Amino acid sequence: MTVENSDAGRALPDEFAALLGRALDDPVLAERAVVALLAEIGGARLARRTADGWHLVTAPGDLEPINSQLASLEIAAELSSGADTIAPAYAILAAEPDHTPLTQTAVQQICTWLTLCRTASERHDERDEYREELDALTVLVKHMLTVRDLDQVLLTITTETLRMSESDICGVFLREGDEIHMRSCVGHRLMETARLRMSAGQGVAGMVFETRAPARVDSYLQDRRISTHFMSLAEQEETRSALAVPLILGDDLIGVLEVWRRRYSNFTERDVRRLEELADLATIAIDNARLYDSQRTALTALESTRVRLKDQVDLLDETARLQKSLIDIVLDNGPVFPRVARTLAEHLNCTVAVLTPDGTVDAVYPRETPTAQMEHAFARHRESVNVGPRLLATGSDDPVWLQPIEIGSDHFGAVCVQGRDLSRERIGVACSQAAVACTLFYLQQRAASLARAEALDQILWDLMDGSAEQRAAARGRAQQMGVRLKGWHRVLYGAIENLESTTGRGEASVSAADRSRRAILRTVRDVSLPPQVTLASVRGNRLVALVPIQDRDRSRSFLKALNTQLGTDHAGVTISWGLSTPREHPGQYTEAYAEARTALAAARRLGGASSLYDDLGIVRLLLGHEDADFHSFVYEITGPLQAYDQKNDGALMKTLQAYFDANCSQKDAAELLYVHHKTLAYRLDQIRKLTGLDLSQHSDRMRADLALRLLDVSEQAEEPGGDVDRVE
Predict the structure, then answer these.
(1) Residue whose C-alpha is closest to residue 640's, from 684, 683, 687, 584
(2) According to the UniProt entry, where is the signal peptide (predicted)?
(3) What is the per-residue pLDDT for 29?
(4) Which residues contact 277 (CB under 8 A, 6 or more apart)?
(5) By the 8 A CB rule, do 355 and 413 touch?
(6) S-S: 550 plus which of 58, 294, 363, 488, CB 3.0-4.6 Å?
(7) From CA 365, how far away is CA 340, in angstroms rounded?
(8) 3-state secondary structure of 465
């Protein structure tokens, strides 16, 4: 044992006392000197205190545990070095309790000197380690600053962290919403480790994710703080201890840096500090890599946008030139479709055809190119093409592009392009421009047709019920527009009875009703019985037309054919018609128009689909609302007879009057006229031929008798001082 509080014993040799005045960087050399001194003196041994207790120094660097109580060996005095307090780490044991080979002062000096030498050595070692760590961090920072790719940055972080922390596995978790997942891992044995994904509170990384504070585990499988989610994986990886720290950027946790060891060990505060420093570097590197990726992505997107915009500008310039060429073709009033096909074919360097709605090739360029594939493609995909353009495979190396030609809901065919290496965007724009040119041509034709139709409509209505000046101007405009009004014409007048009930109400029904009216008008114009109508128009639910028919039987056939065709084309729509007597001069169309309206009134009141004015007889007088009905009724019967009598100095009017005066007896009439009964019969036959009346029929006799009586009344009314009241 050491001798405490006593100066008994030997003093230190001078050479050793001189050694105590120097500081040795190597504690092993210091221990060797003390051990040699004690061996020389004899009766004492050197002891050193470690984390596991006191040990005898048997040889420099070698320790032997001491089992006896050594509390008396501990020197109570503590050493002070700057801000740190250093507890003595050495003691000297006496071989015999009563033998004191060294003085107490010498013992204290030796122990203090050894403690200082070891402390200085440890500080030098720490300094060297810090220097190495700083050098490693410097290299790591430089390397991470040169690496821009995020995956490469993460791999560098995990590799260097694994080396500097003396661990077996290292991984970087990055946050994705409410989870973190492994983005980079080294040292693992199982793929499941590299694919780890966890929520807050799961595993060590989950603890850090939840608490945002470092977490260390000295025994992974026995620590109850860790959830059991990944215990099986930890057993397979033979994980024994772990340390994890958060990756904090500003106020946000962006991930977790974690290391594992396959041995039992205690992670020190220095290990935690070192891993936090690496985590800070990792956070900066990850943020820089992300910023670089974002910047690179933005630059790539900008470059892509620039290239795309340049291509679009080039395409727009090209399209503008093509559009100008196509519009010039439309405005030149020449053949449109062949020139459009040629212009588009030369622009795209391929075959172009313009097809009609039924699939017929209207134009193709080059002219001798076979068009069977394009026609077949259009026939197969006609309905889908009406919805939008399509690129179709044809079984050959040359696909077909179909671009519909349409105006609203009306379809007029398609522009077909066939060729190899066709740019979808370029061909789509070019074909749409060609289709627009064709559409403009159709619109031009439609506008011209509508303008002509409106002009012809106005001419027809002016001829029907315009003033004398309007009728004269209408005849002039009709002649200028090539409408032939010479010859016999009848006026057809119709009324659509139930159009609103079949199409409904509202804006859509109004449009549907207009389409139905135009369709009915087309049927009137295109009725199969020749000749076709000269002019036809519709206003509201009223239709009027000029029909070039003189013969009464043909007029009946026309009305029958018209009703049949309308019943086929427009089932469910009720239409009534009235047809006037024929007129040879356009100036008489107003009278014919009145007759047609009277005939229509008769058809509607008598429940028929149509009525011929010629067949109305006296009914026209009951339904007529103008003087034209009265005069036309009289003139229809007496006019031809008076004309014949004036031309041939005949007596047909007198014969007809005598026939009625004789109560329709040919014998009595012949006696009244003092002529032979055969002469009377001949005259009656002449009357039949001129008027179309069969006097053997009661209805015709009644018409003729009423016409004569009305003629007598009108002549008496026109005489000066005439009084119609005196006529019975």
Answers:
(1) 687
(2) none
(3) 83
(4) 137
(5) yes
(6) 488
(7) 9
(8) helix
CA-wise closest residue to 578 among 550, 539, 605: 605
Question: Looking at residue 78, what DSSP letter applies?
Answer: -
Burial of 309 from C-beta contacts in 10 A (0-12 / 13-18 / 19+):
exposed
Q: Distance between CA 66 and CA 47 in Å, rounded?
A: 9
C-alpha–C-alpha distance, residues 210 and 225, integer Å:
13
pLDDT attached to residue 209: 92
Token representation of residue 219: 């025994």
Residue 142 half-sphere exposure, CB side, CA atoms within 13 Å? 5
Q: Identify the three-state secondary structure at position 365.
A: strand
Q: What whole-number distance in Å separates Cα of residue 344 and Cα of residue 318?
A: 12
Quote the CA–CA distance of 387 and 414 in Å, as a whole number: 12
Residue 182: name the closest of 211, 204, 163 by CA.
204
Q: How many whole angstroms separate alpha carbon 562 and alpha carbon 706? A: 33
Rounded to an integer, what distance in angstroms lies between the CA atom of residue 141 and that of residue 143? Answer: 5
User: What is the band of 78 on the pLDDT scale with cuts at 50, 70, 90?
Assistant: very low
* Mean pLDDT over the full length of the chain: 80
Q: Which helix (H) or strand (E) holds 537?
A: strand 535-539
DSSP letter string, 153-191:
HHHHHHHHHHHHTT-SEEEEEEEETTEEEEEEEES-SSH
Residues 6+ apart with CB under 8 A from 169: 162, 185, 186, 187, 188, 193, 237, 239, 259, 260, 261, 262
The amino acid at 107: V
Joined together, the tokens standing for residue 205 give 């990384």
- Is residue 710 within 8 A of residue 631, CB to CB? The reply is no
Handedness of CA 217, 218, 222, 224 (dihedral sign): negative
pLDDT higher than threshold 90 for residue 322: no
| Total residue length of the chain | 728
Tokens 């009241």: give the residue: 725
Residues 6+ apart with CB under 8 A from 520: 496, 538, 543, 566, 569, 570, 573, 575
| Rounded Cα distance, 436 and 326, in Å | 9
Q: Which two tokens stand for residue 55?
A: 């040990």
For the purposes of burial, counting CB atoms within 10 Å of the CB of 287, is it exposed (0-12), middle (13-18) or buried (19 or more)? Answer: middle
Strand partners, 174: 181, 255
Answer whether 233's CB lies under 8 Å from 192's CB: yes
Type of residue numbered 649: D
Distance CA 515, CA 133 (A): 90
Q: For residue 364, which of 397, 347, 340 has the smallest C-alpha distance?
A: 340
pLDDT band at 665 (very low <50, low <70, confident <90, very high): confident
Amino acid sitting at position 682: Y
* Contacts with 453 (C-beta within 8 Å, 6 or more apart), sequence order: none
What are the C-alpha distances in Å from 661 to residues 46, 348, 682, 699, 702?
Answer: 179, 92, 18, 17, 13
Rounded to whole angstroms, the Cα distance separating 535 from 456 reads 7
